[in-house]
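Lecture notes, structural biology module. Today: joint structure prediction for complexes of two components.
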Amino acid sequence: MSILSVKNLNFEYQSKEGITKAISDLSFSISKGEFVGIVGPSGCGKTTLLNLFANIISPTSGEITLYDKPISSEKEKIALMPQRDQLFEWRNIEKNIMLGLEINKKKNTKENRLFGLSLLQKYGLEGFTKKHPSELSGGMRQRVALIRTLVTQPDILLLDEPFSALDFQTRLNVCNDVYSIIKEEKKTAILVSHDINESISLCDKIVILSSRPAQLKAIINIEIDKKLTPLKRRENELFPRYFEKIWKIIEEKEQ
Amino acid sequence: MNTKHEKYLKKLRQRKILTISLQFGILILFVTIWELIAHFEIVDPFIISSPSRIIKIITSLYAKNNLFNHLHATFYETVLGFLISTLLGTIIAICLWWNKLLCDVLEPYLITLNALPKIALGPLIIIWVGAGKDAIICMAILISIIITIISMLNGFLEVDKEKIMLLKSMHAKKIQILTKLILPSNIPTLISVLKINVGLAWVGTIMGEYLVSREGIGYLIVYGSQVFQLDLVMASTVMLCILASLMYSGVAILENIIKKKF
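The predicted structure, tokenised, for the full assembly:
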């Protein structure tokens, strides 16, 4: 059932000061339709891991496979939703969501374009197709950013602290929106975040990394009712217990 | 509520009318005082000229069919210098963005050229390209191209790294990053460069005309001062003011059109 697996992943990079090991012997796997959170102390190599998933850099050793094939050959099946929405101000909403299609000409089919427009309609943005990003609220912009990643029909979504630029109130609402859209479209998602609360409210499973070099510390399954929205999950009695558990694991001194 | 807002709008309108009438007032006052000082010879009009003498000299230039030749020569050189330096500077900036090594290698040269007062190269240019229109256009290009390259390149390098990462995650080629992100996101930089270059192109052209030329506004100014005909110098300066601000408003109109599109 696992669609994505990370096997004995190592990554090191060079700088003037020498070689730095960012990720050390990391292994875990993700099942289809799962929402997986990756948390860890800041600077632990979460962004490096994300860049590896997105195929922007290659591992020093070990591999990441998607459907048992190395992801370097499957890169079109992975899409990134970056920190802040990163919509292009000079493009209207329709042109913003078509960006991925313009870049990958093979996917620039009429079918995909119509799919993009149908997503805008489905998620309450049909009146805004010709508007520019500056005319939309923070929450709407975030939805557009998510739709932009969905248009190319990827199997896996990478979310890089996607809500970090929003105020708390908006954040909770957008979190609900994004969660329901991802579940509705039946996508597998990987959320990289330093916000433990947010990770618990969204994810089925949380991978906890150690400080640099990132090693696997624990994998926690979140067994709060999957049907609840992220906001409702925050009210669940199990929520604080998970928080405490994860917090302790992150804080725990490494041997 | 409504009347309050109307009051506010009225206040805004009145403020605008006040600003414009003061602007015209200053101009009229200045011209009148100038004319009076010259007329009653409080200061010798031979030295300071006067508005009426300026009008006279412009009409006499016009009557001799010379006026438009001079205006045309200067305007042509300026516009050509302006367009070439902006275009060429942007292309060079794109090359430097594209090739990091080239950029690092050329950096000290760019800094030196930027610091160099371009007018010092005037005599060299005259020897190399000849004492004609080409030398003047060269001067206009030279004076603005370095700052164009540096401003555009800085704009290119300041593009949000996360936007680049987004495109890379879509597996965009370098040329796609350039055309879909780097260039469109730098339209505002281009507009500010255009505005700087309008001014600089005039500096370059007039400097060039001081050095060579047999026609043009710069030529009229130099000629007028050599034969001590200060009416001509003043008249040329006034025409220069008008032409330069016309060109600047052209760029401002272009800016508004582009801003609406983006």
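Point to remember: The first helix of chain B runs from residue 2 to 39.
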